[in-house]
Amino acid sequence: MISTVTTTTVSTVTTAVTTVTFAASLALATVLTLFVLLVQKELTLSAETPRLKALGRALDVAVVPLLMAFAMIAVVRIAQALR
Questions:
Q1: Residue-wise pLDDT tens digits, 37-83
Q2: Angle (deg, nearest 10), helices 50-58 and 60-82
Q3: Contact 71, 25 (CB under 8 A)
Q4: What is the rounded CA–CA span in Å between residue 36 and residue 51?
Q5: How far is CA 83 from CA 8, 24, 63, 80, in A?
Q6: Which of 54, 32, 35, 34 is nearest to 44 (CA)?
Q7: CB contact at 8 A, 41 and 80
Q8: C-alpha angle 79-38-64 in degrees, rounded to nearest 5
Q9: What are the residue ranges of helices labelled H in 1-83?
Q10: Which of 32, 47, 78, 82 could disulfide-link to 52, CB 3.0 to 4.6 Å?
Q11: In this structure, what DSSP letter does residue 48 have?
């Protein structure tokens, strides 16, 4: 009985730690991708070629959802800090 409870508890804790680690790495990947896309957008919009300017405007398709994800990550982190 005790070994079953211990095994279940360790399994639950391991799953929780894995989930938190995955969420943190996903948040980091989101922020880094947003940063790279914003830099790329600025570089393409500063070019004088119309084709590159069009590419810079097209990057909004990827940047806007990532900005929303970044805002959500920031809200969750602030809420955790205030708790």
A1: 999 999 998 888 999 888 988 999 999 999 999 999 999 999 999 99
A2: 40
A3: no
A4: 20
A5: 28, 18, 30, 5
A6: 54
A7: no
A8: 60
A9: 2-45, 50-58, 60-82
A10: 47
A11: S
